[in-house]
Write a structure and sequence with these properties.
There is one protein chain. The chain is mainly α. The protein has one domain. Helices cover 74% and strands 0% of the residues. It is built from six helices and no strands. The longest helix has 25 residues. The radius of gyration is 17 Å and the shape is globular.
Length: 123
Amino acid sequence: MLHPAVPYILVSVIAGAVGQILLKKGMTDMGAITLSADQIFNTLWRIATNPYVVIGLFIYVCGTVFWLAALSRADLSFAYPFTGLSYAVMVIASFFLFGDNITLQRFAGMVIVWVGVFIISQT
């Protein structure tokens, strides 16, 4: 039987991944940022007005709300390992959206994470 926290956890993981993808898109469009004292306010303004970054942060915050709902329903030792799914989601999304390379080691790591989450979900 599915633990009542799992849907909340999965929405949180997906929202976190989508948020990160949008943050990456926004920052890629901006290019390398400068954090020097004379450029910091200009850099922060550019970040704060980038629609991909703003939407990405919003979705990430929404994911956090679902995470809090999950934590109200499950032990942390049960819920937290599910966040490992985000690593696998990000590797796959990065491949399709940004052309990142998926090495054999990355693929093996994803499989190990999936197996681990499956084992934990059975407890």
